[in-house]
TrEMBL record:
Keywords: Cell membrane, Membrane, Transmembrane, Transmembrane helix, Transport. It comes from the Bacteria. It comes from Kitasatospora setae (strain ATCC 33774 / DSM 43861 / JCM 3304 / KCC A-0304 / NBRC 14216 / KM-6054) (Streptomyces setae). PANTHER family: MULTIDRUG TRANSPORTER EMRE, SMR FAMILY PROTON-DEPENDENT DRUG EFFLUX TRANSPORTER SUGE. This is Putative multidrug resistance protein. The lineage of its organism: Bacteria, Bacillati, Actinomycetota, Actinomycetes, Kitasatosporales. GO terms for molecular function: transmembrane transporter activity. Belongs to the drug/metabolite transporter (DMT) superfamily. Small multidrug resistance (SMR) (TC 2.A.7.1) family. The chain crosses the membrane at residues 30-48, 60-80, 86-104.
């Protein structure tokens, strides 16, 4: 259970860092740039800890897929970025692919 919480925290850290990357204006603003660095470091540390007991393939798919959807939703909420029907369809396909990977290949190697 702890490993799954670590993956969730890694996703949150990665999404936060990605949104801060947008706010940093090319890493020219100090505070958002610091959030980018801290967020990505935290994401990889948390993911590395989770991979002590979880399989890398499904976990990476979950982390990157849900991180992608999280960044999409965050971009819409925080920055007012537009969403087209094709964007929503793509997000649904990403989540479906993550679900299939999760169902198809045991997450834990312990």
């Amino acid at each position: 259970m702890t490993a799954y919480l670590l993956v969730g925290a890694a996703i949150c850290a990665e999404v936060t860092a990605t949104l801060a990357l947008r706010a940093s204006h090319g890493l020219t603003r100090l505070l958002p740039s610091a959030v980018v660095a801290i967020g990505y470091i935290a994401a990889f540390v948390l993911l590395a800890q989770a991979l002590k007991s979880l399989n890398v393939g499904p976990v990476y798919a979950v982390w990157s897929g849900l991180g992608t959807v999280g960044a999409l939703v965050g971009g819409v909420i925080v920055f007012g970025e537009p969403v087209k029907p094709a964007t929503v369809a793509g997000a649904v396909l990403v989540v479906a692919g993550v679900a299939v990977l999760y169902l198809g290949g045991g997450m834990s190697h312990e």
